[in-house]
Design brief:
- By secondary structure, the chain is an alpha/beta fold.
- The chain has three domains: 64 residues, no CATH class; 216 residues, Rossmann fold, CATH 3.40.50.300; 153 residues, no CATH class.
- The protein is built from 19 helices and eleven strands.
- Helix 13 links the parallel strand 7 and strand 8.
- Helix 7 packs across helix 11, helix 8 crosses helix 9 and helix 9 packs antiparallel against helix 11.
- The structure holds adenosine-5'-triphosphate and magnesium ion.
- Magnesium ion (MG) binds next to helix 5.
Length: 503
């Protein structure tokens, strides 16, 4: 044992000493004892127990010794209390209660590590989230990040909750396998294929709607369809006389077909438009001649009747809408020509018109309508108008619409600021209470930030998202969620198979 230790084990203070001498002797003894302990091996200092009461705050000797070290002492800061809503202004991803366990399992909340479930209908009806005003959703992300896989999971898992899913337009044909696996069906349209859809089909009248109201609704939908088709081919807005010509020819064609006991076809409308004397007679003494106005329209519809789309949309439908099927998709993959996509847009207009009127029954239960690859739609005002009217009807019909696009700037491609297309596209975004943002390219972050009102932290998070991981903005709340796929889903939803085979 070192000498210092021996000299520090006892304190002898002679009896006749002053108080000052006693104090000084005691402090010398304390210092000698401290030095002795520092010189000891750690084991002898009692560190084998992991506890050295005397030196625990200052060993190794660094910083200030004693209470001034602030180690183990109490640090008192002024209290500051705020709600999580306020704190989320600075940092949005607070690990709080999430959206609850109601609804469809999506995956894992990356920050809270809990499950993330989502059901737009229960969120809407419970009123739990302030500002959640509609069940519609937008999903944006760069190619291959798993947008379609998420939409397919939503559809697949929603079936267990009693929902049905409709895909009015599947330009890649990737929903066919999913629909078949779930007991639904697909209508494939394209040159040489046997499928036919008559977009002027009138669906069965829902019991809750009066006959007159239903007749008006069907007429309105047919006119919207005809105007959309004409505008797509003519690439311009219709003149008032042209709208009148469409009205008249629709009424004449419907009267004729009802007399025959059948449903009017696009060919019947084109034929009536090609007979201006009949339109003039129907117009009566209201003035004007329909000839020149009807001529352009007749040519516009000709493409669907005699042109490259002939046969597909101007014949009686080969399938009836089955409201009990869990999923129905319309496969337009055979139409996806390069360059001018007018044929695809016309087909999309007809297919979505057919499906949307079949979905007009408000007692048809809760449904998802998924517009995959909706970025293709953005440049076509007619299609945007269709979507807008579906969006507006969503709550009344019990339909949640999901629009899948690549970038937020796809919405801006609808037209210049203030144009009709742009207003429609921005209106669609405004009517989506749920916004799911998958990874965006760095040059897209500014647009995403301004259109969605992202905070700096959210924009940073979006730039770094990996496959299947998205920023979910549900009304005012934000979550980063990892979508989890079951192995069976993964096999069914795989769109990379060809890439793997080619490697
Ligand atoms: N959460 C996930 N976990 C694992 N694999 C996933 C996940 N999401 C998607 N994938 C796989 O990634 C591939 C691409 O996904 P998907 O087709 O859904 O991407 P996308 O964003 O729709 O692409 P595109 O923009 O080309 O349509 C698929 O093979 C899919 O199985
Ligand atoms: Mg996709």
């Amino acid at each position: 044992m070192p000498r210092t230790r021996a000299s520090a084990t006892a304190l002898f203070v002679p009896r006749k000493t002053s108080r000052a001498q006693q104090r000084s002797a005691r402090s010398e003894f304390a210092e000698a004892r401290r030095q002795a302990r520092l010189a000891e091996a750690p084991a002898e200092r009692g560190e084998q127990d992991g506890f050295d009461p005397e030196l625990r705050a200052t060993y190794p000797p660094s910083g200030r010794p004693g209470p001034a070290s602030a180690r183990g002492g109490k640090l008192s800061l002024p209290k500051h209390r705020m709600t999580t809503a306020t704190a989320s202004g600075a940092y949005p991803f607070l690990a709080e209660g999430g959206l609850g366990a109601d609804g469809i399992f999506i995956g894992r909340d990356v920050h809270s590590e809990g499950s993330f479930c989502f059901d737009p209908f229960s969120l809407y009806s419970s009123g739990r989230i302030e500002g959640f005003t509609n069940p519609n959703a937008i999903l944006a992300g760069i190619i291959g990040m798993g947008k379609s896989a998420l939409a397919k999971s939503l559809a697949t898992r929603a079936i267990a909750h009693g929902y049905r899913t409709y895909i009015p337009c599947d330009p890649k044909g990737e929903w066919t396998a999913v629909a078949q696996a779930l007991g639904g069906y697909t209508i494939a349209l394209g040159p040489g294929l046997p499928g036919r859809l008559n977009p002027l089909d009138a669906p069965a009248r829902p019991t809750s709607v009066s006959a007159d109201d239903w007749a008006n609704e069907v007429r309105k939908r047919r006119l919207l369809l005809l105007a959309g088709l004409a505008r797509t081919v003519l690439k311009r807005d219709l003149h008032p006389m042209e709208h009148t010509a469409l009205d008249l020819s629709l009424d004449l064609a419907v009267a004729e077909s009802e007399a025959r006991g059948s449903v009017p076809l696009l060919g019947d409308i084109a034929h009536t438009l090609g007979s201006p004397e009949r339109l003039d007679a129907a117009l009566g003494d209201q003035g004007g001649r329909m000839g020149p106005a009807a001529e352009d329209l007749a040519h516009a519809l000709r493409r669907l009747v005699h042109g490259d789309l002939s046969g597909m949309f101007d014949a009686p439908s080969t399938v009836a809408f089955d409201p009990k099927a869990p999923m129905l998709s319309i496969d337009l993959s055979r139409l996806g020509g390069a360059g001018d996509d007018t044929a695809l847009v016309l087909a999309m207009t007809c297919a979505s018109a057919w499906m949307e009127s079949a979905l007009a029954d408000p007692t048809g239960g809760r449904r998802w309508v998924i517009y995959d690859e909706a970025w293709r739609v953005m440049r076509h005002v007619g299609l945007l108008e269709r979507m807008q009217s579906q969006w507006k009807l969503s709550r009344g019909l019990g339909i949640a619409n999901l629009m899948v696009i690549h970038r937020l700037s796809d919405l801006l491609s609808a037209g210049d600021a203030g144009s009709r297309g742009r207003v429609l596209a921005e209106g669609l975004l405004a009517d989506c209470s749920t916004r799911i943002i998958y990874r965006q390219e760095p040059d897209q972050l500014a647009t995403a930030t301004s259109l969605l009102g992202l905070t700096g932290v959210e924009a940073q998070a979006v730039a770094a998202l990996t496959k299947g991981r998205g920023l979910w903005k549900v009304a005012g709340r934000s979550f980063i969620t990892q979508h989890l796929l079951h192995p069976a889903e993964r096999a069914l939803f795989d769109t990379d198979a060809r890439m793997v085979l080619a490697a």
